[in-house]
Amino acid sequence: VEDSGHELSPESIVILRALAAHNEIYLASNGPTERTRRLAEQFGTKYLPRLSKPRVDVSLRTLSRKPRTVVIGDKFLTDGLLALRIGAEFILVESMRRAEDARHI
């Protein structure tokens, strides 16, 4: 989801549904909990409320005990460090930007 956005891109929807078909998915964001909750409910996934990545809390310790945990994110210093702290694999993806943000680059 783009920064401050509330909708997944069509490509992200396809990927999320494919992953959710065979995996347990948790959405986590340093952004507003309400936004994360709505997205999780929309796609039938779980979410981790009030997360402050890369801090490791109880719910993340539970995730790290799963046979394989993968953190997918666009920021190495938050998402990547979180993966390192919980012993998970990390997949870095490109940040999504709003169209109006591109004018300021």
Biggest sheet overview: 2 strands, parallel
H/I helix tally: 5
State the distance separating the first and last CA atoms.
19 Å
What is the SS-derived class? alpha/beta
- Residues in helices, as a percent range: 40-55%
Strand order of the largest sheet: 1-2
- Per the principal axes of the C-alpha atoms, what is the gross shape? globular
Strand content is: 5-15%
H/E element order: HEHEHEHEH
Estimate the mean pLDDT confidence. Answer: 78
- Low-confidence runs of at least 5 consecutive residues: none
How many extended strands?
4
Whole-angstrom Rg: 14 Å
Write the layout of secondary structure elements.
Layout: H1 10-20, E1 26-28, H2 33-43, E2 46-48, H3 58-64, E3 70-73, H4 76-86, E4 89-92, H5 99-102
Parallel strand pairs: 1-2, 3-4
Describe this entry's structure for a reader:
- This protein has 105 residues and is α/β, with parallel strands linked by helices.
- It has five helices and four strands, in the order αβαβαβαβα.
- The mean pLDDT is 78.
Descriptors for this entry?
single chain; alpha/beta; two-stranded parallel sheet
Concise structural overview:
With 105 residues, the chain is an alpha/beta fold. The protein contains five helices and four strands; from the N terminus they run αβαβαβαβα.
